[in-house]
From TrEMBL:
<feature type="region of interest" description="Disordered">
    <location>
        <begin position="650"/>
        <end position="847"/>
    </location>
</feature>
<protein>
    <recommendedName>
        <fullName>TIGR02302 family protein</fullName>
    </recommendedName>
</protein>
<keyword id="KW-0812">Transmembrane</keyword>
<feature type="compositionally biased region" description="Basic and acidic residues">
    <location>
        <begin position="828"/>
        <end position="847"/>
    </location>
</feature>
<feature type="compositionally biased region" description="Acidic residues">
    <location>
        <begin position="742"/>
        <end position="752"/>
    </location>
</feature>
<keyword id="KW-1133">Transmembrane helix</keyword>
<feature type="compositionally biased region" description="Basic and acidic residues">
    <location>
        <begin position="758"/>
        <end position="770"/>
    </location>
</feature>
<dbReference type="Pfam" id="PF13779">
    <property type="entry name" value="DUF4175"/>
</dbReference>
<keyword id="KW-0472">Membrane</keyword>
<feature type="region of interest" description="Disordered">
    <location>
        <begin position="549"/>
        <end position="568"/>
    </location>
</feature>
<dbReference type="InterPro" id="IPR012683">
    <property type="entry name" value="CHP02302_TM"/>
</dbReference>
<feature type="compositionally biased region" description="Polar residues">
    <location>
        <begin position="650"/>
        <end position="665"/>
    </location>
</feature>
<feature type="transmembrane region" description="Helical">
    <location>
        <begin position="33"/>
        <end position="52"/>
    </location>
</feature>
<feature type="compositionally biased region" description="Basic and acidic residues">
    <location>
        <begin position="728"/>
        <end position="741"/>
    </location>
</feature>
<feature type="transmembrane region" description="Helical">
    <location>
        <begin position="58"/>
        <end position="81"/>
    </location>
</feature>
Length: 860
């Protein structure tokens, strides 16, 4: 009884370990029996996921399916026949095999010997208790799922790998074609070839590819851009195909639900989301989701930037889901903010808004880009007036963005010439309203009242006079639009000519740049404008200095006196002064900057006076060549001295460097080592101690390199002289160059005595070339002075004044000197008086000149 109770207690305690052990045995037997079945199923599913049925002919697919079905059935029957569920005793034996001493088997045993012996029974019960205690640690063993002995080629692993690859890289849509394939088989429609075809063509600007509907039968949901076109073509003449859709409007020859038999083609534009269904051979059903095309966006990314020449730069950023196709910048006059005074008081003529095209990025980058719109508004009527800027962009679907509006003042060009500013103001009044024609005429007549004060060339004056006459003629009958435009264009050209006409001269450009910078200081211009004006001033200064250097011809006879009384100003000093001016302006110290600017202005004026009078102007090319030759001569002399010192050290190492050994007598009264060295040179042909020469830093090799550098420099100076230089100087410099080359070769051969001889020849030829060049410079100066003297003498008769008297030493006529010989003083006086009266009768002359002539006539 106790044994039965123990068995029941043991069964309850080992219930779950036994169940898990039984499940493990089931898994082992199932895998061993069914591994060919699931391997074949995995392979078939992987083939379907990879779309094998789409790439093989229909007949081949059907044949393969039949063969796989037979093989699958055979392996399934074999697996079912071999599979057997495990018994409880097998589970108990598997669990007992994992315990030490197999206690489960011991607990099921019965005592057969010594049943009547109490001691024997006590021993048996103690044994059972020990076995029962060992069962407390019983746990279900892991099943043995290894199949290498049954599948040595690893076919099951290949099938699992193919299935995983198909799940990751395959397309589940191909399962839909399996259903279609089965439907066709059941319907008896196994013919090869498509019964219809369809394409979804997105708009070209989207950059999306065309979709082939026949490849998308397994997919139920499709996303297409707005405006896509679905093209369908039906080929089957033996059966009908049914089309159902609610995504767009079919052509008038078709209905929303229609049957198409035979060969039919149609196109459908996607206008909304909906369903598309094709029933029939290889039909399909799709849910079409239309992706709406979002409207583009534009916004200002920086404030507008205006230049001094009236140019506007406006940076903006535009974006669209498929790219921006176009953009405009609309400029509208803010009439309510205009200061309606002077010429703007009249009611303006109707003016259309200015519409400008915005710059766009390349098509590949037009989805989101930043660009800058640049436009020159200087000639425009609204330049300098308050306006409203409106930016708007458009996409390929002709959707427009919201308008980005900015209120600003349209930039205008600043005219510093008073006459040019007056002409531009009159032009603006004419363009503002044709009724301002009379006012503009009065303004132009007022500024032209004193022509000699206009500082305008003859052609510019004539252009302004012609424009004024045209305006006066047009005002008789009233300005018409054609005359308004023609006169405004002419006045703009005249204003530009007045403002920039004199800028061909470097001095005029410099003065203009200084005036503009001074005006900017007075009105407190921005840092950007100051930087631009300083850049303009630097360029004008460079041009002015270059012009002085090219046109200056100083008098060589006065050069020494000028150097004592004048102070040279270098380009570096001018640049430093301009840098200091710019720094002061950036710091807001305008008063100090204006003082330095005035100092710079005086410096430039002094440079002009110096250049035209007795000052120390920039050097001429001949003077620069003379200085370069002097420097080359000094370098050649230094090189010759160093070569001679090296020669002394070679033959008299004990003599200190730089000391003449011939000046030190020896103890026995003989000449020093210098004489001995010279005798050795005469006997040895110039070959000295090579070991001594090689250890010196100024040895023959370094001397040869320096001699080559001097020869190259002399060659450069000859080229700088040009073909127009004096022939004697060029020949002397050529001979000096050949002597330098021979000295260089001698130094390379360590023949220092020969090198010294050739260096002496080079020095002499350099001096000869400098003498010839100086003589040519003096002759050029004398010829220039002679021409100036002849010009001055041509102003009077025989070098005197109009009365034939010789001029004084200071330029004034000597009133106490007699008239020239052979002259009739009374006749000459009569001629002069007649000439004065003739000029006084010419009323076209200026009033000041006429008044001066009257005073002269009254004295006689």
């Amino acid at each position: 009884m106790k044994s039965a109770d123990a068995q029941n207690n043991l069964s309850k305690r080992l219930r779950w370990p036994l169940r898990f052990t039984w499940a493990g045995l089931v898994a082992e037997r199932f895998l061993r029996a069914f591994w060919p079945v699931y391997s074949l199923v995995f392979t078939l599913v992987a083939a379907f996921l990879f779309g094998v049925q789409e790439r093989l002919p229909f007949v081949v697919v059907v044949g393969l399916l039949a063969a796989v079905s037979v093989l699958l059935l055979a392996t399934l029957v074999r697996a079912v026949a071999r599979f057997r569920f495990p018994h409880r005793s097998e589970s108990l034996a598997r669990l007992d095999s994992t315990l030490v001493g197999q206690p489960l088997a011991a607990l099921t045993d019965a005592q057969t010997v010594g049943l009547d012996d109490p001691a024997s029974r006590a021993v048996w019960e103690a044994h059972l208790r020990r076995m029962e205690a060992k069962t407390a640690s019983a746990q279900a063993p892991w099943p043995d799922l290894r199949l290498a002995d049954r599948d040595p080629n690893g076919l099951r692993l290949m099938a699992v790998t193919a299935l995983l690859a198909a799940v990751i890289f395959g397309a589940p849509k191909y399962f839909g074609s399996v259903t279609i394939l089965s439907d066709n088989l059941l319907a008896g429609q196994g013919e090869a070839g498509a019964q219809w075809e369809g394409w979804i063509q997105p708009p070209s600007y989207t950059g999306k590819p065309t979709l082939y509907l026949n490849d998308l039968i397994a997919r139920s949901d499709l996303q297409v851009p707005e405006g896509s076109v679905i093209a369908l073509r039906f080929y089957d003449e033996s059966s009908a195909n049914s089309l159902k859709q609610n995504i767009g409007t079919l052509p008038t020859t078709a209905q929303a639900s229609a049957d198409f038999g035979g060969t039919t083609s149609l196109s459908l534009s996607v206008e909304r989301s909906g369903d598309l269904s094709i029933k029939g051979a290889y039909g399909g059903d799709w849910s079409i989701e239309m992706l709406a095309d979002a409207a583009p966006e534009v916004r200002l990314s920086a404030p507008p930037v205006a230049t001094l020449d009236g140019e506007l730069r406006q940076e903006f950023r535009a974006s669209d889901d498929y790219g921006v196709a176009a953009g405009t910048l609309r400029v509208t006059l803010d009439l309510s903010a205009v200061d309606r005074r002077y010429g703007l008081h009249a009611e303006p003529d109707p003016q259309e808004d200015l519409v400008l095209d915005l710059p766009l990025a390349f098509s590949a980058e037009s989805a989101d880009f930043t660009e800058t719109a640049v436009e020159d508004f200087a000639p425009n009527l609204w330049a300098g007036l308050p306006v409203t800027l409106a930016l708007q962009v458009e996409d390929d679907l002709e959707q427009t963005s919201a308008v980005e509006i900015l209120e600003t003042t349209l930039p205008k060009r600043k005219f510093f010439h008073p006459l040019a500013a007056s002409v531009v103001e009159a032009r603006r009044d004419i363009l503002w309203a044709r009724s301002n024609g009379l006012r503009a005429e009065q303004v132009l007549r007022a500024v032209m009242h004193v022509p000699q004060d206009m500082n305008l060339d003859e052609s510019g004056f004539l252009m302004l006079r012609v424009a004024l006459q045209r305006l006066a003629m047009a005002n008789i009958d009233g300005l018409n639009p054609q005359e308004q435009t023609m006169i405004a264009d002419a006045l703009w050209e005249i204003a530009l000519r007045i403002e920039d006409g004199g800028l061909e001269d470097a001095k005029a450009r410099l003065e203009r740049a200084q005036d503009r910078l001074a005006e900017a200081m007075e009105r407190g211009a921005s840092d950007e404008e100051i930087a631009e004006l300083m850049h303009e001033l630097r360029e004008a200064m460079d041009d002015y200095v270059k012009q002085l250097a090219q046109t200056s011809e100083p008098n060589p006879d006065q050069q020494s006196a000028q150097n004592q009384d004048s102070t040279d100003v270098t380009q570096d000093e001018i640049d430093a002064l301009m840098d200091q001016i710019q720094d002061l302006m950036e710091q807001g110290r305008m008063a100090e900057a204006q003082q330095l600017l005035e100092m710079l202005r005086e410096m430039m004026e002094n440079m002009q006076v110096t250049q035209g009078g007795e000052g120390n102007g920039p050097q001429t090319p001949a003077e620069r060549a003379m200085e370069d030759l002097q420097e080359t001569l000094r370098d050649q002399q230094d090189l010759s001295d160093e070569a001679f010192r090296n020669l002394q050290e070679r033959y008299n190492p004990s003599t200190p460097q730089g000391q003449d050994p011939s000046a030190q007598p020896s103890e026995d009264g003989q000449e020093g080592e210098g004489a001995t060295g010279e005798q050795q040179l005469g006997e040895g042909g110039g070959k000295g101690n090579e070991e001594t020469d090689q250890g010196q830093p100024g040895g023959s090799e370094s001397l040869a390199q320096r001699q080559q550098a001097l020869r190259d420099e002399l060659s450069r100076q000859e080229q700088a002289l040009g073909e127009g230089s004096d022939g004697g100087s060029r020949e002397a410099l050529d001979r000096a160059g050949r002597a330098m080359e021979e000295a260089e070769n001698a130094l390379e051969d360590e023949d220092i005595p020969l090198a010294l001889d050739r260096q002496s020849e080079a020095i002499e030829e350099l001096r000869e070339g400098m003498r010839a060049l100086g003589q040519a410079m003096a002759e050029d100066s004398n010829s220039a002075e002679g021409e100036d003297g002849q010009t001055a003498q041509g102003e009077g008769r025989d070098g005197g004044d109009p009365l034939g008297r010789a001029p004084g030493t200071s330029g004034a006529s000597r009133s106490d000197s007699p008239f020239a010989d052979g002259e009739n003083p009374y006749g000459r006086a009569r001629e002069l008086l007649d000439e004065l009266r003739r000029r006084e009768g010419d009323k076209t002359r200026p009033d000041q000149e006429l008044e001066y002539l009257r005073r002269l006539i009254d004295q006689f």
